[in-house]
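Customer escalation, tier 2.

The customer says the design service returned an amino acid string that "doesn't look like it belongs to this structure." They asked us to rerun it and document both sides in this ticket. The original structure tokens are below, unchanged.
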């Protein structure tokens, strides 16, 4: 498995371009059967993305998803694009991450109507946990243009079928809403990708930006205006999710052989003597304790991420009201962007944003102290 590589697939060129423009130095990679991918680095250089275009529909998406998994052995497979909302929420431009995918066209037609016989695939636990974390923190939306509403991410079921659903009053629309009333969005590729991931053992995430309401407005001026916005928001969330999943693969705490507290077991299955330095022996099993020499404090970017999480917890606990939390998050976005750019001028912008943040959360002494410490750190980089 390639721990530092994630496959991202899209159905439309618009969606493909929304992901591609965020990658660093994408280079063409040609599969032996002619399928073209582009491999580029994530925006911060931490991990790689293999990007491919499947076209519309569950079947071609499943075939190319399986092909990509066999070719790259990725840490995960993400399908990214736009979708229609089945209800009045989520709002246009928001992102939906599938907790599970319904292949809703499974059924049997009988005298008294169509009886649903769906298949469903649940999102892997570690992906749902990572997505929920990113949705809470909200940093993925840091690049939203100032004239646009800041989008949010929602976790819930997605329905994937074989037709373009563009009506709220048709017989199919009524049946879908009656039978799959918990689905937040509807599209045409997620079921194929989810099944391919299930068969190949690759973790799959379906990330969709809401571009319409499946209500007859597809191909209108409004839809053409919202599609690029929804695609861009889905791409932004997906790439932050990809980075988070790569970090998990690299983290010792996520490895199966890791033991909390730094302990570990050494098991001798061979004949002969085994020398052990430190530890103790219980019967024929050696128990070895590994001690840490101490963790170095993270850099400014890590500290910013930690601050964002603490702000989210303070907000959830009721210590920060909604307006203050939103203003504080905006200042963190400015500081984060300044640190990413890395120029002396952008670092000054980061420092000013952190000073404003410190003023906003002055009532929370421990958080304000951490912000002050971070200001000192950033000043030392100037």
């Amino acid at each position: 498995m390639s721990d530092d590589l994630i496959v991202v697939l899209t159905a439309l060129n618009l969606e493909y371009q929304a992901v591609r423009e965020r990658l660093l130095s994408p280079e063409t990679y040609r599969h032996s059967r002619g399928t073209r991918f582009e491999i580029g680095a994530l925006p911060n250089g931490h991990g790689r993305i293999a990007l491919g275009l499947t076209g519309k529909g569950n079947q071609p998406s499943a075939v190319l998803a399986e092909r990509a998994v066999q070719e790259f052995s990725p840490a995960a497979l993400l399908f990214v694009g736009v979708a229609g909302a089945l209800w009045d929420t989520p709002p246009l431009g928001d992102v939906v991450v599938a907790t599970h995918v319904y292949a809703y066209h499974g059924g049997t037609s009988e005298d008294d109507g169509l009886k649903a016989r769906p298949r469903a695939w649940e999102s892997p636990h570690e992906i749902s946990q990572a997505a929920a974390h990113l949705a809470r923190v909200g940093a993925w939306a840091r690049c939203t243009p100032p004239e646009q509403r800041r989008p949010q991410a929602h976790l819930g079921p997605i329905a994937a079928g074989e037709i373009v659903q563009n009506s709220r009053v048709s017989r199919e629309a009524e049946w879908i809403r009656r039978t799959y009333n918990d689905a937040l969005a509807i599209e045409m590729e997620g079921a194929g990708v989810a099944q391919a991931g299930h068969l190949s053992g690759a973790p799959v995430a379906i990330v969709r930006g809401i571009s319409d309401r499946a209500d007859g407005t597809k191909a209108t001026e409004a839809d053409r205006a919202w599609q690029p916005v929804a695609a861009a928001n889905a791409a932004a969330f997906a790439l932050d999710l990809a980075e988070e999943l790569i970090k998990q693969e690299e983290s010792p705490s996520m490895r199966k052989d890791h033991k909390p507290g730094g302990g570990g077991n050494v098991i001798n299955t061979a004949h002969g003597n085994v020398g052990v330095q430190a530890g103790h022996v219980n019967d024929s099993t050696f128990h070895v304790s590994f001690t840490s020499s101490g963790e170095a404090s993270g850099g400014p970017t890590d500290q910013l991420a930690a601050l964002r999480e603490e702000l989210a917890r303070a907000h959830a606990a009721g210590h920060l009201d909604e307006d203050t939390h939103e203003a504080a998050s905006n200042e963190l976005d400015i500081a984060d962007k300044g640190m990413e750019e890395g120029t002396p001028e952008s670092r000054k912008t980061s420092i000013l944003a952190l000073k404003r943040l410190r003023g906003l959360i002055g009532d929370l002494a421990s958080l304000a102290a951490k912000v002050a410490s971070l200001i000192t750190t950033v000043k030392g980089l100037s």
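Tier 2 assessment: The sequence is consistent with the input. Residues 254-283, 285-296 have pLDDT under 50 and may be disordered. DSSP finds ten helices and 15 strands in the chain. Sent an explanation to the customer and offered a walkthrough call.
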